[in-house]
Specification:
Helices cover 82% and strands 0% of the residues. With 242 residues, it is an all-alpha fold. The longest helix has 25 residues. It is globular.
Length: 242
């Protein structure tokens, strides 16, 4: 196994572990780690190939609690958002993409601290906007989780319904990203080879996290995850400016 393949395995093992502990954050951990060894475009594509396999596991485990009707406006917004993200990924130069990814990463801990606590209920227009934002971010930089997660908090879904609905939506968003990126010829042989290393590593990380997930408080894990994501964002910004 060469150095880049090993780095990919370790990055996604860590990302999968974080995801197994707190349901989000895999790409936000793995992508900046891989970016030290690979072009950002390749990191994003490997992430977009890998994530649906993790989303599949989440959605299957909580499928019976999925709010299917709530998915419709989110998916309707996801399709045009994914198209916009596809063109951004193709058109944006490497330094600008690194800077955009870094700023997106730095925005997540801020949102996590200031997200609204008031439950406002489901809203089709807000769901459409959340779907568009998730699709755009998923296809352009693979971080499609925060807009969908924000809508789940906004709607006030109970934990099981939240996991089932968001997991199913992110799986659908991942499949849409596959269609645009794969159909656009972005999945090169090198990207697919690295994805073959990333997928089992990410799944292994989720499995390794299972025995520990019940022992660490969700609040502590969110705090550690936010700190790691912020460090990854700073690293991306630094490399963009270097």
């Amino acid at each position: 196994m060469d150095t880049i393949a090993l780095a990919t395995v370790l990055a996604w093992l860590a990302g999968g572990f974080v995801s197994g502990m707190c349901a989000i954050g895999a790409a936000m951990i793995a992508v900046p780690a891989m970016a030290f060894f690979l072009p950002m475009h390749d990191c994003v594509l490997v992430s977009c190939i890998t994530l649906p396999f993790m989303n599949l596991a989440t959605s299957v485990l909580h499928l019976r609690w999925c709010r299917w009707r709530a998915l419709l406006p989110m998916i309707a917004g996801c399709v045009p958002g994914s198209l916009a993200g596809f063109w951004i990924l193709r058109a944006v130069p490497e330094p600008a993409l690194r800077m955009a990814v870094g700023l997106a990463l730095l925005a997540f801990p801020l949102w996590n601290r200031t997200r609204p606590r008031q439950v406002l209920g489901e809203n089709a227009a807000v769901a459409l906007a959340a779907g568009f934002g998730s699709g755009l971010l998923r296809t352009s930089c693979s971080f499609g989780g925060p807009p969908a997660a924000a809508y789940g908090v906004y709607a006030g879904w109970p934990p099981r319904e939240y996991l089932g609905t968001i997991g199913a939506f992110l799986l659908a968003a991942g499949l849409v990203a596959w269609a645009f990126q794969g159909g656009g010829g972005l999945y090169t042989e090198g990207v697919l080879r690295l994805a073959c290393h990333a997928v089992p590593a990410a799944v292994a990380g989720v499995v390794l996290a299972c025995p520990l997930a019940a022992r660490i408080s969700a609040q502590d894990m969110r705090r550690w995850t936010s700190a790691a994501i912020a460090c990854g964002g700073l690293a991306c910004v630094w490399k963009a400016l270097a």
